[in-house]
Amino acid sequence: MFLLKLVPDNTNVDFMRVRNIALALSIFVTLASIVLVGVRGLNLGVDFVGGQMMRVSFEEPVRIDELRSRIDGLQLGDSAIQEFGGPRNVSIRMPLPEGGEAAANAAADRVKQAVTSAYPTAKFEAVETVSGKVSNELFRSGGLAIALSMLGIAIYIWVRFEWQFGIGALTTLFHDVCVTMGFFALTQLEFDLNVVAAILTIVGYSLNDTVVIYDRIRENLRKFRKMEVIPLLNLSLNETLSRTIVTSVSIMLALVVLLFLGPDVIFGLTAAILLGTFIGTYSSIYISVPMLVWLKVDSDSFVSKAAAPTGAERVTHQEGY
Fold first, then answer.
1. Do 143 and 116 share a domain, yes or no?
2. Which of 96, 105, 147, 236 is the most buried (most CB within 10 A)?
3. If we measure between CA atoms, which residue out of 174, 154, 173 comes closest to residue 165?
4. Phi and psi of 308, rounded to 5°?
5. Over the stretch 96-124, which tens digit does the pLDDT of each residue have?
6. Residue 177 lies in a domain
7. pLDDT given at position 136
8. Nearest-10 crossing angle of helices 267-286, 163-187
9. pTM, to two decimals
10. What average pLDDT score do residues 163-181 get?
11. How far apart are CA 88 and CA 91, in angstroms?
12. Torsion of CA 241, 244, 246, 248, to 10 degrees
């Protein structure tokens, strides 16, 4: 039976040759993401800021300024109206009126009436209401969940491998989360609890890829005691390259289909995981592994110098390192 091989046997890609260029690029993108979040901010959904969120679909593209003038004429407070996934889909965000649930329902009915009177074919896909107290709790809980997951992962890697591996994994996860949030600040896609779930998924995927590579590096550090670190890291990356590509490509193919054919309500979730899969694959190669070089990992990190090597060893020297 014919087996498809995405990566040929005996592949020998010199990943570490461009590690400094990748480092500069990663630092630039991470800092740019942090600046974007600080300057532009995130388009926080109702989950985090409280209020009413309505998603409306139209048969034809609608003029946002005209729709805004009609809703503002209701004098229900400042409204935030923007396209949601396409010119025929619009999200309307309103502040919560005073008077509790009854007042919120009455305000939603007035908005529905104003929109459908001007656009008879308009369909309200969803109407969500979240109080300010609940939204603050959700925001704190979401941020805490991301921070604790990253800290727990770093401790796990530290215990299973060595402290250098824990720092490498934590740096990788920090990079992935910052770039994902920078993407949402740049595109102003709605940032809600679905995106928090996506970030936690990205953290898990990036960790899984990093652990597989780290495990092979640890195995080779014990196996090839006389081999220089740079060639050993390249060897480990090439040995796990097939698994990395197959996993990431299969996930991204499914996500691309879901991104274009899936419902609008999970558009942000799908976009975040798709970007995170690509970024996580990149960072597991060009951040987590080069960190071991900068943190001076060698064969003595796992086996003492007094221990005798077992079996045949591969000795490789490369110039220019």
1. no
2. 236
3. 154
4. -85, 135
5. 776 666 777 788 888 888 888 888 888 88
6. yes
7. 66
8. 140
9. 0.70
10. 87
11. 10
12. -140
Joined tokens for residue 88? 């025929």
Q: Which two tokens stand for residue 39?
A: 């300057």
Give yes or no for a contact between 11 and 238, defined as CB atoms under 8 angstroms apart. Answer: yes
Q: Which among 79, 102, 130 is the end of a domain? A: 130
For residue 76 the two structure tokens come to: 């229900």
pLDDT tens, position by position, 77-93: 767 777 776 778 888 77
Same domain, residue pair 97 and 143: no
- Do the beta carbons of residue 36 and residue 310 sit within 8 Å? no
Q: In CATH, what number is assigned to the domain containing residue 140? A: 1.20.1640.10
Structure tokens, 157: 């890697």
Question: Among residues 236, 245, 313, which one has the least CA distance to residue 278?
Answer: 245
* Structural domain boundaries, residue 146: 15-42+135-301
Query: Predicted confidence band at 36 (pLDDT cuts at 50, 70, 90)?
Result: very high
Q: What is the CA radius of gyration of the chain?
A: 25
Count structural domains, the chain. 2
What was the pLDDT predicted at 134? 56
Q: Tell me whether residue 142 is in a domain.
A: yes
Please check whether residue 281 is in contact with residue 237, taking contact to mean a CB–CB distance below 8 angstroms: no
Could you give phi then psi for residue 226, rounded to 5 degrees? -95, 0
